[in-house]
Amino acid sequence: MRSARWRAAHLLRERGAGPERVALQLLHTPPARDPDVVTKLRHAAASAHARGAPATAAVLLDRAMAEPPGAELRGELLVALGRAELAAGKTVDGSERLFSAYRCATDAL
Description:
Layout lengths: L3 H11 L4 H8 L8 H16 L3 H13 L4 H17 L3 H17 L2
């Protein structure tokens, strides 16, 4: 059964709300291995980063990682999360995420 926050996010999206407004609801839903949630959080993070809010982007991407994403997106999300954390001044966290992305890439070889 879907949570009230999940239903609110989908209702907001149907009514044309922006990606960050939708993602605000999804931040408070329990992870459920839902690729659609990962996509929505990822788009909202890109929007936040583009408007100069890397800390917000990092929070959204961190939640997307908790969903978790499929193996095919894991490395890409880790790179985006690492970059957002670095831009937000979280150099240790950002470096660790980028190293994890590197490990994802080398594990695939």
